[in-house]
Design brief:
Layout lengths: L1 E7 L6 E6 L2 H11 L5 E7 L1 H5 L2 E9 L2 E6 L12 E4 L2 E6 L2 H19 L4
Antiparallel strand pairs: 1-2, 1-3, 4-5, 4-7, 6-7
Length: 119
């Protein structure tokens, strides 16, 4: 489903005025709120979040510390599968941070086992 997010303001002083499922309504609201070109709307497809896993950058910091962040800026958009970038950095597709970390931990264990000639 598409939703239309109506915004007003400039740069860091920008806020959401409302949300609608109709582009016609979004245009009407923007027109009503717009005084000096500071109102607009953006279209978001909510299905993209329901049907696809998130792309995480997962980092190993220590035995007890792993970090996973969604690639919100699409820095790693060139990756379309789980990828070991180096022994401490991974691109992982998963539904949750916890799942992404577990997948990266498994990949790290397999990498280390291969490196040591165990498998």
């Amino acid at each position: 489903m598409k939703v239309y997010i109506i915004e007003k303001g400039w740069y860091s002083d920008r806020w959401i005025v409302g949300v609608t499922e109709s582009e016609e309504v979004a245009k009407r609201i923007v027109s009503a709120y717009d005084y000096d070109g500071d109102s607009s709307y953006r279209v978001y497809d909510t299905d993209q979040f329901q049907n696809k896993p998130f792309r995480f950058k997962v980092e190993y910091w220590s035995e007890e510390t792993w970090n996973a962040e969604v690639d919100a800026y699409e820095t790693y958009s060139g990756y379309d599968t789980n990828t070991l970038i180096d022994i401490d950095e991974y691109i992982i597709f998963a539904k949750t941070k916890e799942q992404a970390i577990k997948i990266a931990q498994d990949m790290r264990a397999e990498y280390k086992a291969r490196e040591e000639g165990v498998i």
